[in-house]
Amino acid sequence: MTAEELKSIIAAGLPCEHLSLEGDGRHWFATIVSAEFEGQRAIKRHQKVYATLGAKMHTDEVHALSMKTYTPAEWAAQK
């Protein structure tokens, strides 16, 4: 799976204000900013992202995905 394919899948299932992705085809690191994360703890945010990937996480198309998830306000505070 390419970075663009993975970004497209995540963006199709989760409205993102920012989405960056780095990886080697199996191991990925994402930074995701979405208003959908408002009021949620990190585990719920990550579950939302994993839900966009569905079976791809279970079939090893995406072997590992680490991520940092932010609300738009949290992201703005990072800059």
From TrEMBL:
<protein>
    <submittedName>
        <fullName>BolA family protein</fullName>
    </submittedName>
</protein>
<comment type="similarity">
    <text>Belongs to the BolA/IbaG family.</text>
</comment>
<keyword id="KW-0489">Methyltransferase</keyword>
<dbReference type="InterPro" id="IPR018117">
    <property type="entry name" value="C5_DNA_meth_AS"/>
</dbReference>
<dbReference type="InterPro" id="IPR050961">
    <property type="entry name" value="BolA/IbaG_stress_morph_reg"/>
</dbReference>
<dbReference type="Pfam" id="PF01722">
    <property type="entry name" value="BolA"/>
</dbReference>
<dbReference type="InterPro" id="IPR036065">
    <property type="entry name" value="BolA-like_sf"/>
</dbReference>
<keyword id="KW-0808">Transferase</keyword>
<keyword id="KW-0949">S-adenosyl-L-methionine</keyword>
<dbReference type="InterPro" id="IPR002634">
    <property type="entry name" value="BolA"/>
</dbReference>
